[in-house]
Design brief:
alpha+beta, 60s Ribosomal Protein L30, Chain: A, 2 domains, seven-stranded mixed sheet, two-stranded antiparallel ribbon, globular, disordered N terminus
């Protein structure tokens, strides 16, 4: 989920304004175990037949209560090695530059805090070694836009959630739209095969590759964010394009929070002290309406 300081008016991304209209859906912070129906309510007045409603994965995960408190875990020898040796030094100083990963990612790896050892332990517990080996953004677990020492796991059954939301919109407002839930973790293409390191994705995307998908992606074509679930089947190329448009919209809004480091900058301090009330003081953009112009 992306967070912004001020409420937004209907806006178009300059990159796609000749082909698509983009409308941000803003809400208050969706709290743990709170219904995601607020997204439907706030989107309804803008929706038209045939629109895409693209939702970030974190508000859905938080709504489902898929939060883990990392303060309840203790680092192990393996998680220590994964954080301090493998990610911080081997990827931060050797493999990262060799594979030309983003300079921002390299800088973040080089300054990994001690808490990263516990984070690796959580990844090991929930997703296993093949995901914990990924140097950053392991298994799509989100450290931003959650309170305190919590992290959010990927949403449960994103395809089912997408169908639930589109069904409610159709029943309550008589508007047929396609709902898609996406994760900013990338998917790639090699020799016509689309894949992602994430544990889950659309059926047409090979998923749950963990570190091996991340490594293979260094040699493939970057396609953009990964669609996790969709309410109505579409050609994969269309789903990927719509997901990329939504991500680009967020990237061109400088107040959006994409990483835990952005959240630290926003609240100017230790993110372990971030509360639900602090998050609720912000305006959030959990979804984007994307409409193809005729």
């Amino acid at each position: 989920m992306r967070t912004r300081k001020n409420k937004s008016e209907t806006n178009n991304s300059k990159l796609y304004q000749e082909e698509y209209t983009l409308i941000p859906v803003v809400t208050d912070y969706i709290k743990p175990n709170e219904s995601y129906d607020i997204i439907i309510k706030n989107a309804a007045e803008f929706l038209q037949e045939g629109d895409f409603l693209v939702i970030s994965e974190t508000p859905i995960s938080v709504s489902q209560g898929r939060l883990v408190d990392e303060s309840e875990f203790q680092a192990s020898i393996l998680s220590f090695l994964l954080a301090d040796v493998w990610s911080k030094y081997i990827w931060g100083y050797i493999l990262g530059p060799i594979f030309r990963i983003k300079s921002r990612t390299i800088n973040n790896l080089r300054k990994l805090p001690p808490e990263a050892r516990i984070h690796k332990k959580v990844i090991l517990e929930y997703y296993g070694l093949k995901h914990a080996l990924k140097p950053a953004s392991e298994a799509g677990v989100d450290l931003s836009n959650v309170p305190g020492t919590m992290v959010s796991l990927l949403p449960d059954d994103p395809g089912g959630v997408s169908r639930d939301i589109s069904g409610k919109i159709l029943r309550e407002f008589k508007i047929d739209v396609t709902v898609m839930i996406i994760d900013t973790d990338a998917c790639y293409e090699i020799m016509g095969k689309t894949f992602t390191s994430l544990p889950i994705a659309l059926d047409d995307i090979k998923s749950d590759l963990g570190f091996f998908g991340y490594l293979l992606g260094r040699f493939g074509n970057l396609l953009g964010p990964t669609p996790l679930g969709i309410s109505t089947p579409h050609e994969l190329d269309i789903a990927l394009k719509i997901a990329k448009i939504a991500e680009d919209y967020h990237k061109h809004n400088e107040k959006d929070i994409e990483t835990v480091y952005d959240m630290g900058d926003m609240f100017k301090g230790d993110i372990s002290g971030v509360t639900v009330e602090m998050l609720d003081s912000m305006t959030h953009t959990p979804a984007i309406i994307i409409r193809k112009l005729l």
